[in-house]
Specification:
Oligomer: single chain
Order of helices and strands: EEEHEHEHEHEEEEEEHEHEHEHEH
Helix content: 25-40%
Strand content: 15-25%
CATH superfamily of the largest domain: HUPs
Bound molecules: flavin-adenine dinucleotide
Distance between the termini: 75 Å
CATH class of the largest domain: Alpha Beta
Radius of gyration: 23 Å
Strand order of the largest sheet: 9-8-7-10-6-1-4-5-11
Length: 350
Amino acid sequence: MSGVAAVIEQVEGAPTLLSLELLTMARRLAREMGQALEALAIGPGGAASAGILSSYGVSFLHVADHERLGAYAPGAWAHTVVQLVQGAHPAVVMGTGSDRGAEVMAHLGARLGLPLAANCTEVTISLPLEGGGWGGGAAGEFLVTRQRWGGSLLEEARLKGEVKLLTVAPHALTAEAEPARTEVTVEVRRPSLDEKDFRVTLSPQPNQGSGRISLAQARVVVGGGRGVGGAEGFRALEELAALLGGAVGCSRVVTSLGWRPHSDQVGQTGTRIAPDLYIACGISGAIQHMVGCRAAKQILAINTDRDAPIVAQADYAVIGDVGTVVGAVTSEIRKRQSRPVPSAPDALSP
Ligand SMILES: Cc1cc2nc3c(=O)[nH]c(=O)nc-3n(C[C@H](O)[C@H](O)[C@H](O)COP(=O)(O)OP(=O)(O)OC[C@H]3O[C@@H](n4cnc5c(N)ncnc54)[C@H](O)[C@@H]3O)c2cc1C
């Protein structure tokens, strides 16, 4: 058993942000173990990410290609990873902390009869203690720190097993490329899959592939809560998000009320976001919401209540009605966008 294998996810041939975070942690662990870092990309176009992976220390890219792997199917993905484990014998298999990553790795643990440490923020070797390289296998042991209860609790645990299985908590670390690139060997294989592997298959959503920016990847997120007042109120948030090239998110109250789909929900039971800017409109800032947005670099809260918990946690706050404030911000952006760009002074004119 050798090597650290990272199961990456891709959108249109590019690894997702969570996959790059996964590779960053996997690379550190592989180096500590003195082992190679390998990646597994599932589905068509998997080989396209080899260029990016070379900046993340990956030396071998396994591509599992099969005409039915274009759509996500958890059983088929897990069976594909099982075949990787049986063929390449990695000492460690790591997945992302996305819904898919968690689901596939849970299937994998069940199929291999091995424990899975989910949502890890740190991983170190605890056994063997001495003697340099990884002496691994079932005798090896990792010490992991992992998020529990939506990130409100950190647990330290020992991870055992012939092959160590773990997922990386979303946005627990920053994805870091390296200036020196590795040579990536790409091997494309067709996994052996049958009908029962596709018992559950995700049908493409109507808005998939329409250029909509995903919540998890957006650099700007405009989130709305109960204070937005209703589904209609989200039109203004959509407009602001579009102007800023961002995505719209919401609180759980909003999804429970049926104003927005669950796919827009930010938080413990929704999506974890890590934008440069999160504009939280009419959101109180409950702990279950904040665990989903705490990786945001800056938070701007718009709220009528200066004592709302989110105001104390935000970098900036505007105390006022969401409709009025968002409307004013949007019209100011529009005004600035329509102004002609001043021409540079002519250095040669007298
Ligand atoms: C197990 C569990 C999991 C959960 N998971 C999640 C999760 O993933 N995501 C999540 O969001 N929640 C989650 N929740 C729910 C969470 O506890 C809160 O109930 C929820 O986040 C509150 O949503 P809100 O801020 O929209 O509503 P409220 O708490 O009602 O807050 C509304 C805010 O709007 C402000 N406001 C009102 N009118 C205006 C106005 N005109 N202009 C500006 N501001 C205004 C108010 O001052 C208030 O601060 C979970 C709860 C549990 C128990």
